[in-house]
Design brief:
flat; AlkB_tRNA_MeTrf/Diox; 7-stranded mixed sheet; 27% strand; Rossmann fold; 3 domains; methyltransferase; 6-stranded antiparallel sheet; RNA-binding; 30 strands; Jelly Rolls; Alpha-Beta Plaits
Length: 601
């Protein structure tokens, strides 16, 4: 009995501490000791890896959840129909670990919370969903005509009719029509369409892409090329429902739209031209029931029939230049899973404090742990023809400058400590920043960037780094880029990073707080601190490094925090495509890293 009381006392102390921190940050949040119909989860939110499906399922085992409010913070709120229901959840779950790799959740009643903007209701204009668009008979007929003997994507199968849809560019070549036209079985859809959607009466597509989505698969956020396709673009969901995510890249607004089985999605005007849309790969979706309660819906095998009408010749004068291929070269921005980056003006200073200065401090110790070349990187370097010039952009201790004696190798790095190691090894190196490489245009045969770009703190800076490599490459020159992947487990196999033994040093590092508040140029930046040898919970975070020094007692060893942006699946490829004038020769996943080989066109 006494141990239970002690445990509850510890939980209450932690709750009180969190209340003080959150209350100091936002005065509109008023906590209460008396039951209220709103519960705050004080230590989990969008910024630190909340597992919403697990949370909702667990809460719904106790009572019905009315709403889950997720501000862009490390806390969130649960709303119930009554105070008694909220009290039941707090009694059963407060201080309980809800997922195996997490901490016990800390809960508190809330008397009032701010009026957070409800992004889920902020749909883009021009978005239309027609429910029960087709009958069961038509659905079976359409699915039956498909033959899955051709194109298989990474996580789905596709078929094209009329014109082949070019993935990555999100376009078609109107000069190369396919012999296979749209199936005549689709003709009866347009009679239904004219009746149910008179606004676009007469719309007749000439291109169809059919996707077969296995459970758990998705598609990266994208915007179909403006100049090639007319307005609207429509998509029919068959066999199962899905939640599609929409994001406005201008202001970060987003919404989650349920597409029920047999429904027709119509994207026109703003939803067509100004927002990105995609499907997050996962096994379930959070939806609301007909009684407006939150629940988790398991995904199933789904088919989507996406119909488009080509605009020939291509042209566009829309009001959404950010995603327009005619008015701007910025396309295919990757959805960041609600994980916001730092402000542009603070990015360089954050990198200086939590990347460059850190590596100057830990450089020698870091070098001792970096001695083996990655096999695929070594193969790339060995494949270069005799006499080639290779540039290692961010060479570190130069471990890749010792490969292939038949080529000329140059390297640069920002860290003077690591460059000193290179000089001691007689490598040809110089100090530079990857955003401004002091080498003339079109002068390098090949370039490698291994574990560098993920230290850049904004999307634009990461794009700039790739553009600089392409600038110094000769025509048809190739670049190999490695970045740390957010997902450290592929095909149910853990990477070496996750499997590596957790030493006492790692255990001590992992006792750091969940969040760090950095004071950068009189501005405060809040970032989650990664727990070493675990899955990443956020895209932008601080990764600890414990500096071992023989002459200093172990308890005095310093811990440094390095900034990382870990990459979602497909994000690196989209960055490269955004640079233009490039061909992706190969894209692969290598022991917890996303990797691409580029060719300059």
């Amino acid at each position: 009995m006494s141990s239970t009381k002690n445990n509850m006392s510890k939980i209450q102390k932690k709750v009180k501490s969190k209340q003080l921190m959150i209350g100091a940050e936002n005065k509109e949040i008023e906590f209460s000791n008396e039951p209220q119909n709103i519960l705050a989860i004080l230590n989990y939110g969008l910024l630190n890896g909340i597992k919403t499906e697990i949370l909702i399922d667990r809460v719904n085992e106790i009572t019905s959840l009315l709403d889950l409010i997720l501000p862009n913070k490390s806390y969130c709120f649960l709303k119930f129909q009554s105070c008694d229901e909220a009290a039941k959840v707090l009694t059963e779950l407060n201080g309980i670990k809800l997922w195996t790799d997490g901490y016990p959740v800390l809960m508190s009643f809330c008397k009032s919370i701010p009026k957070y903007q409800d992004y889920l209701n902020e749909e883009p204009s021009g978005l239309i969903i027609l429910l029960d668009f087709v009958t069961d008979e038509i659905e079976k007929k359409l699915i039956a005509l498909l033959k899955w003997d051709e194109c298989k994507m990474k996580n789905r199968q596709v078929q094209h009719f009329g014109y082949e849809f070019i993935y990555g560019q999100n376009t078609v070549d109107y000069r190369k029509p396919l012999e296979r036209k749209l199936p005549p079985e689709c003709d009866e859809l347009w009679t239904i369409f004219d009746t149910k959607c008179p606004k676009f009466k007469g719309f007749r597509p000439d291109q169809l892409t059919v996707n077969k989505y296995e459970r758990g698969s998705g598609i990266p956020a994208h915007c179909d090329t403006h100049s090639v396709f007319e307005d609207p673009i429509i998509s029919l969901s068959l066999s199962a429902s899905i939640v599609m995510e929409f994001k406005d890249p201008v202001n970060g607004k987003h919404c989650s739209i349920l597409l029920p089985k047999k429904s027709l999605l119509i994207m026109s005007s703003e939803s067509r031209y100004g927002w990105l849309h995609g499907i997050t790969p996962k096994n379930s979706d959070i939806v609301k029931t007909k009684h407006n309660l939150m629940t988790v819906q398991q995904r199933e095998l789904r088919y989507s029939f996406t119909f488009r009408k080509l605009r020939i010749p291509p042209s566009c004068d829309c009001k959404f230049p950010l995603l327009c291929d005619i008015q701007s070269k910025i396309v295919n921005e990757q959805n960041s899973n609600n994980d916001h980056e730092v402000d542009q003006k603070l990015a360089a200073k954050l990198e200086l404090e939590n990347v460059h200065n850190v590596y100057n401090e830990i450089g020698n110790h870091f070098s001792e742990t970096r001695h083996s070349a990655w096999p695929n990187v070594e193969n790339f370097i060995m494949s270069l023809i005799e006499g080639s010039i290779l540039l290692d952009a961010g060479c570190g201790n130069g471990k890749y400058l010792n490969i292939n004696d038949k080529i000329t190798k140059l390297g640069f790095d920002r860290s003077s400590t690591l460059l000193q190691v290179c000089n001691e090894r007689n490598f040809q190196v110089f100090q530079s920043d990857c955003l401004q490489i002091p080498i003339i245009n079109d002068s390098i045969d090949a370039c490698i960037s291994i574990a560098v770009i993920h230290h850049l703190a904004t999307h634009d800076r990461r794009v700039q780094a790739i553009r600089e490599m392409l600038r110094v490459l000769r025509k048809k020159g190739q670049a190999l880029i490695y970045v740390w992947a957010k997902d450290q487990q592929k095909d149910n196999k853990k990477t070496r990073y996750l499997l590596q033994h957790q030493s006492k040093d790692i255990e001590k590092v992992n006792k750091l707080p969940e969040m760090a508040i950095l004071n950068i140029d009189e501005e405060k930046i809040e970032l989650p601190i990664h727990k070493n040898r675990t899955q990443f919970k956020s895209s932008n975070m601080l990764v600890p490094w414990k500096l071992k020094q023989k002459e200093i007692p172990e308890e005095q060893h310093k811990i440094f925090l390095r900034y990382y942006h870990v990459f979602e699946d497909g994000e690196l490829e989209n960055l490269c495509k955004e640079c233009g004038n490039v061909e992706i020769v190969r894209s692969y996943y290598d022991q917890g890293n996303h990797c691409v080989i580029l060719k300059k066109l």
